Amino acid sequence: MKYDRIVVRYGELSTKGRNRKQFIKKLAHNVKRAIADFPEVKVFGERDRMYLLLNGADDQVILERLRPIFGIQSFSPAVRVPQDLEEMKQAGLSLVRAMHQAGGSFKVNARRADRSFELDTNGINHELGGFILQNIDDLHVDVKNPDVKLLVDVRSEGIFLSCQTIQGAGGLPVSSSGRAMLMLSGGIDSPVAGYLAMKRGVEVEAVHFHSPPYTSERAKQKAVDLAGKLAQYSGQVQMHVVPFTAIQEMIKKQIPEGFTMTVTRRMMLRVTDELRRRREGLAIVNGESLGQVASQTLESMLAINAVTTTPIIRPVVSMDKNEIIEIAQAIDTYDISVQPFEDCCTIFTPPSPKTRPKLDKVERYESFIDFEALVQEAVDATETFSVEVADAKKVQDEFSDLF
């Protein structure tokens, strides 16, 4: 069956009041960006539905592009016919016939938004269902658990018919809740945190700390590949790669060993916060999970957070590792995250880091070093570029020599 359009349902956006128009506008923008290489497809965002007119484009490719877009509850490939009973019957028959398997069942589920149509919903169900039964052998009706459900939506602009309802990603359109900086280490947790923030409408820009020669180009590329995986939910992700060697060497040289991890995290947060200010972001997102490592105890979080008043969003803070891994596998970041390239969070980790660092001691040790100048130098030297959707084959090839 050749479909001529796709009907998109908003889900959570339907609960929005006066702001609904802005959310729909954001969603339409994200959809257009996801299918930018199909200029013939036209997107129309209306109050209760969105329509994509395919104009000959490959409907299966467009359907796959819609799956990861936040703000979509469900979507259906559909055909539209005029408000004509005979044309409705023929279109419904073609759709069910294309989906029918021997011994299968079906039902007709009609909605009539346009009350002027000649049949009510029960009349549509009876008339269309009876016509299909007469013309397809080995088919029966099952109103509770049908193999094929024919959806019929009668509107003033025509009758829309579909046999498929595909679940969308849910959530809110990316960027509808503002911009935040994601501290993307290259591990398992931070990409998951970024994904969950994006699902709530946050546009994330990734900040990765790179410390050559202690960290390799492979470690940097690993973070870029993770950003590419997140880009499938927004079309692209801005990436900021921060040169962090000078700061880490100074910390290792001047700060007592037990406090080096706390000070390192504080400097990362200061750099990220300055990038956020320059990029007009509203918050910082990280992958901290309470109690998972020494820097993620409540005492450590208190000492680290003291460098900023910017809101810190921690989407995975209450999850255990298995829960985080399950999401990482679902969004296809896990296999990249576990590649054995150390990032700067692990290369200088002391054998016995303080799990309950005292803020006054941390600030005293820092006071002997001009960290402000080092932070500004790192921010000024940050490399910023756009990361597009990751090519799965390319990422796989990059790591093939490891196995």
Count of individual beta strands: 15
Which sequence of SSEs, written as H and E, runs from N to C? EHEEHEHEHEEEEEHEHEHHEHEHHHHEH
User: Percentage of helical residues?
Assistant: 25-40%
Poorly predicted tracts of residues: 392-403
Question: What does this protein look like?
Answer:
Helix content is 39%, strand content 21%. The chain has 403 residues and is an alpha/beta fold. Helix 6 links the parallel strand 11 and strand 12. Helix 3 crosses helix 4 and helix 8 crosses helix 13. The radius of gyration is 27 Å and the shape is elongated. It is an enzyme of class 2 (transferase). InterPro entries: Rossmann-like_a/b/a_fold (IPR014729), ThiI_AANH (IPR020536), ThiI_fer (IPR054173), ThiI_N (IPR049961), THUMP_dom (IPR004114), THUMP_ThiI (IPR049962), tRNA_STrfase (IPR003720), tRNA_sulfurtransferase_ThiI (IPR050102). Pfam families: ThiI, ThiI_fer, THUMP.
Attribute tags:
6-stranded mixed beta sheet, 9-stranded mixed beta sheet, elongated, 14 helices, tRNA_STrfase, 39% helix, EC 2.8.1.4, alpha/beta, disordered C terminus, THUMP_dom, cytoplasm, 403 residues
List the helices and strands and how they pair.
Layout: E1 5-9, H1 20-34, E2 42-45, E3 49-53, H2 59-66, E4 72-81, H3 85-99, E5 105-112, H4 121-135, E6 140-141, E7 148-155, E8 158-162, E9 166-170, E10 179-183, H5 189-199, E11 203-210, H6 217-231, E12 236-243, H7 245-254, H8 260-278, E13 283-285, H9 298-305, E14 312-313, H10 321-330, H11 334-337, H12 359-366, H13 371-380, E15 383-388, H14 392-399
Parallel strand pairs: 5-6, 5-7, 10-11, 10-13, 11-12, 13-14
Antiparallel strand pairs: 1-3, 1-4, 2-3, 4-8, 4-9, 7-8, 12-15
